[in-house]
Fold Glutamine synthetase.
Amino acid sequence: MGFRILVKVCEAGIASSQMRLNHKKLWMAIGKHFSCTTMSRTILKDSPNAALNKTLLNKYLDLPQPDNAIQAKYIWIDGTGEGIRSKTRTLDFIPKHPSELPEWTYDGSSTYQADGSNSDIYLQPVAIYRDPIRRGNNKLVLCETYNSDRTPTASNQRNKANEAMEAVKDQEPWFGIEQEYTLLDFDKRPLGWPRNGFPGPQGPYYCGVGADRVCGREIVEAHYRACLYAGVKIAGTNAEVMPSQWEFQVGPCVGISAGDDLWIARFLLHRIAEEFGVIVTLDPKPVEGSWNGAGAHTNFSTKPMRANNGIVEIERAIERLSKRHPYHIQAYDPRGGKDNERRLTGKCETSSIHDFSAGVADRTASIRIPRGVAEDKKGYLEDRRPSSNCDPYSVCNALIRTCILNE
């Protein structure tokens, strides 16, 4: 069957029961004729950002920048607990430490954090990164947010997490976070998916290679290099089980820097995808049915866990985690477990949201002990419950308070 006929059949709707059974095979056949790159050019035609000629910007970014005029982009988390906001100011010096940067304010009534009658929210710089978009001496500045009375905003989970980190810094807590995400075209379908059907079943996409197996690699590669340039401790990346779904890993990071690096990595992912006219979603279950959801599996280790026979400490931590399962479910997504209800079903490589479990090399458990850790009898544990849109500060805080502080 020719490509034009295939498209016409699918766009007209799959009429017969036999064709319903075969529609996935049909779209796999289309994939062989229609590369992901070509498809992306077509489906992104409604995206204003995709239509812009980005090369024109270089005429201006190539202009000499005065030594005493540094662009600092202040970045913060809005009232949703997962949205990222930013704005830029000019500095007359190159900052070396967050304490050198001026405090700033923004309109919290436009970010779900304040009323219009008392709208100013304070931005307190806490971490500095190199800016891979503007380059030169320009900076990305991660900020905490504070109300007018100087108390942390409801979405400022970093403040509480940092208190916990300081209390256990002698334990040298390490975190490695596996951030899964999905690329969408401008009409909110996964990038490269057919308009009137589905891609072939899961199986060939995980760590796949080829235009019929992956889509959006350009964004992934650009993001990886940008994170390295910025100073984010990015550890790797791979295509995930569901087509158009990807993952990058941050860590191992010590203490609060795990959350800092992940939030900056998320900001850069959204910012770079914007250049391509593509949308990034951290929805834990972007497509209903037998498609894998998206998580932020969090690997956690302490100094005693990494020592000889550290498996004893790992098992002790798992025992403590088993007693606080509801608390962790509440802490592991921005809506107190409501998003994870759609993902943690006990299917598609997940545990059940209602039950706690643990096992060696078990990807259907709440807590997985990697095979190598069990053999070496030391190392780390992997908490597979956090949702892809979790606040990493909240996740790390919960792990510290349960596993080390034994709250």
